[in-house]
Amino acid sequence: MDGLPWHSSHPPANRPAGPPSAPRNVISAINETSVILDWTWPADSGGRKDVIFNVVCKRCWLGPRQCEPCRGAVRFLPRATGLANTTVTVVDLLAHTNYTFEIEAQNGVSAQAPTPCGAQASVSSVPAAE
User: Fold this and answer.
1) Which residues, other chains included, contact 46 with Cβ-Cβ below 8 Å and sequence gap of 6+?
2) How far apart are CA 5 and CA 116, in angstroms?
3) pTM attached to this predicted model
4) What confidence tier does 13 reach under pLDDT thresholds 50, 70, 90?
5) Distance (Å, rounded) from C-alpha 10 to C-alpha 51?
6) Given the DSSP bridges, would you call strands 66-69 and 52-61 parallel, antiparallel or unpaired?
7) What is the DSSP letter of 83?
8) Secondary structure E strands in 44-116
9) How far, in Å, CA of 6 to CA of 105, rounded?
10) Residue 70 Cα distances to 27, 50, 106, angstroms
11) What are the structural domains, with CATH classification, of the chain?
């Protein structure tokens, strides 16, 4: 680089790395008290190959959009953070409950971004079979 700030005229190989854009095309498939979340890679990886995904679960109520973290009430398979793949299964959801899942893409320079880049999926669980 020439020591000057990045400019659109710089070739892509010379652009400084940045955080990835948000994951795309989030799909949810719910089955009683579990949900499979699937998404596609961000359109922009930020110029890096170390993109990972974190999934945040929130339990929500109708009315003024009020949500709280799911905490230990649900389990993520394989896990909620540091995912290299674009699919996660969430189990042990409560019946008749609304959930919002936020999928965040991060890379090694994401800490420099003012806010994480994410996408959302909202689902409502149905009663478990009796």
Assistant:
1) 17, 18, 19, 20, 21, 107, 109, 110
2) 23
3) 0.79
4) low
5) 23
6) antiparallel
7) B
8) 52-61, 66-69, 75-77, 87-91, 98-106
9) 23
10) 20, 27, 21
11) 16-124 (2.60.40.10)
Q: What is the pLDDT of residues 30-68, one digit of tens each?
A: 988 899 999 999 999 999 899 999 999 999 887 666 889
**Sheet bearing 87-91, strands edge to edge:** 24-31, 34-40, 87-91, 75-77
| Pairwise CA distance, residues 30 & 43, whole Å | 26
User: 85 CB contacts (<8 Å, ≥6 apart)?
Assistant: 53
CA atoms within 13 A on the CB side of 46: 23
Angle value at C-alpha 110, between 108 and 114, nearest 5 degrees: 160
What tens digit of pLDDT does each residue of 63-117 get?
666 889 998 789 999 999 999 999 999 999 988 888 889 999 999 888 877 777 7
Q: Where are the alpha helices (DSSP H) in the chain?
A: none
Going from the C-alpha of 68 to that of each of 8, 35, 71, the distances in angstroms are 41, 18, 9
In Å, how far are 22, 43, 54, 103 from 40, measured between CA atoms?
10, 9, 14, 11
d(CA 53, CA 104): 5
